[in-house]
């Protein structure tokens, strides 16, 4: 599901949503208490997996595969 409401995006929506995010997974994702699915697979993410993702009690699906992440998932 892609929900693009209530944001500050501007311009045309690209025909392809391919991505290549890089850097660390922000710890602030652990504050999204209503999050039920997080798929960050096939990016260029590195660093440690934030331990506070384990606090997401509603999270049913987590896919961090095919990145350069370290550590044990939540």
Automatic annotation (TrEMBL):
Location of this chain's protein in the cell: Cell membrane
Membrane topology reported for the UniProt record: Single-pass type I membrane protein
InterPro entries named in the record: Leu-rich_rpt (IPR001611), LRR_dom_sf (IPR032675)
Chief site of localization: membrane
Domain of life assignment: Eukaryota
Family annotation (Pfam families): LRR_1, LRR_8
SUPFAM superfamilies in UniProt: L domain-like
GO cellular component, one term: plasma membrane
Record GO biological process: detection of stimulus
Record keywords, A-Z: Cell membrane, Glycoprotein, Leucine-rich repeat, Membrane, Receptor, Repeat, Signal, Transmembrane, Transmembrane helix
UniProt record similarity statement: Belongs to the RLP family.
Protein name: Leucine-rich repeat-containing N-terminal plant-type domain-containing protein
């Amino acid at each position: 599901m892609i929900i693009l409401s209530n944001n500050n995006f501007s311009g045309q929506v690209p025909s392809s949503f391919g991505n290549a995010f890089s850097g660390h997974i922000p710890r602030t994702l652990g504050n999204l208490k209503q999050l039920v699915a997080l798929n960050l697979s096939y990016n260029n993410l590195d660093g440690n997996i934030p331990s506070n993702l384990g606090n997401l009690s509603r999270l049913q699906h987590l896919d961090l595969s095919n990145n350069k992440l370290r550590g044990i998932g939540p």
